[in-house]
Amino acid sequence: MSIITFFSGSFCNQEAVLDQLKQKTQYRVIDDPAIIAAASQASGLSEKKIEGAFSSKTSIFNQFTHEKERSIAHLRLALSEMLNADNLIISGASGLLIPNKISHALWVCLIADLKSRIATAQQQKNISEKEAVNLIRKNDENMSAWVKAVLGLEDPWNASPYDIMIPTDKMSVAESVQLISQHAASDVVQATDASKQAISDFQLAAKAGAALANAGHDVQTDAKNGTVTITINKHVLMLSRLEDELKQIAEKVPGVKGVETTVGENFYKPDIYRKYDFQMPSKVLLVDDEREFVQTLSERLLMRDMGSAVAYDGESALTMVDEEEPEVMILDLKMPGIDGIEVLRKVKATRPDIEVIILTGHGSEADRKVCMDLGAFDYLYKPVDIDLLSKTLKAANEKVQKQKTKKAD
């Protein structure tokens, strides 16, 4: 029994190599979409959200929601549960989550020089050289971010994690397949009691990691013979209290015999550990052209553990609705360009699940009626009492979360 992790640069002839490798070895292929689907089903996060973990672009709300970290935790769990089968090819970026302690995993990377990749992209996609270069650059940026997140390496094509690096512009498909299958059949890459135990350890660590992520924590987990080690990589003011909370969560995971905590190399950096509170609004978009006011409001909300992003005009707000998927908006009415009523109308037409709170200093009773008829959650006037605004935000967020739960059921 062996596992082949199959990672490739874009336009490196990976489809042909994978297809022939599958035929030659008769191994079962598990790809990223299958792992994403399993992770989505287990976590309740959408497949789109989980797929976003592979992107170099991180949501501006992620510092509050930890969605990327939760996605990785559930990808790790889904992958770990698939490793009990014999003779697998894990194709795609997810395979890099397999720890190197699993010695019967053969790490393979396909790459080619840029000139060859550009020519292949042009031919396969029927695009110009410039378009091919941009496409490859974007793909490489995504892979760079992923490799840095899971392996801590700046260069996605660094040879150190891989057992075999194959230059597909210099080796034929048949030669590449022969090389991979020959190594996969060698005694060195066969399962042993130790490597089987490493899979069990990986599964337990992944279960603990997912449980902690589900509770709003962003930590690293490892396991050995039933003992889970939790690594805290951000500075926290009351470390012992956090350690107790982490232990209480991990100890409830089936199979955990003991829990240890430690601090990682980034613990003493100035960023502060922040647990994600699922009950608090953390995807709030503030839209107001009064920059000083809206920045101050964002800071005051953060002091109340509410995460927010800021847009200074209607056009930017609509772009952020499409790209960042906020859950609650606080929207001014009088802005240059697209005014607040038009923003509200467009948001409710395309994303009716977003709750919009109007906050204005220049509105009228007629404006209020229009906004409420369009589906605004509430209509408040400046200057607003921060406690009233916080209460309204929490109520809007509660409505959003109830709707999410209803859809999931």
Q: How is the secondary structure organized here?
A:
Blueprint: E1 3-8, H1 14-25, E2 28-31, H2 32-43, H3 47-51, H4 62-65, H5 67-80, E3 88-91, E4 105-111, H6 114-125, H7 129-151, E5 164-167, H8 173-184, H9 193-214, E6 220-224, E7 227-232, H10 239-250, E8 258-263, E9 284-287, H11 291-303, E10 308-311, H12 314-324, E11 328-331, H13 340-350, E12 355-360, H14 365-374, E13 378-381, H15 386-408
Parallel strand pairs: 1-3, 1-4, 2-3, 4-5, 7-8, 9-10, 9-11, 11-12, 12-13
Antiparallel strand pairs: 6-7
Helix pairs in contact: 1-8, 2-5, 5-9, 6-7, 12-13, 13-14
Poorly predicted ranges (pLDDT <50, ≥5 residues)?
A: none
Strand line-up of the largest beta sheet: 2-3-1-4-5
**Biggest β-sheet description:** 5 strands, parallel
What's the CATH topology label of the largest domain? Rossmann fold
The helix count comes to: 15
Q: From N to C, what is the helix and strand string?
A: EHEHHHHEEHHEHHEEHEEHEHEHEHEH
**Oligomer kind:** single chain
Radius of gyration from CA coordinates: 25 Å
* Mean pLDDT metric: 92
| Named CATH architecture of the largest domain | 3-Layer(aba) Sandwich
- Give the helix level as a range of percent: 40-55%
Number of domains: 3
CATH class of the largest domain: Alpha Beta
Shape: globular
Strand content: 15-25%
Number-wise, the strands total 13
SS-based class: alpha/beta
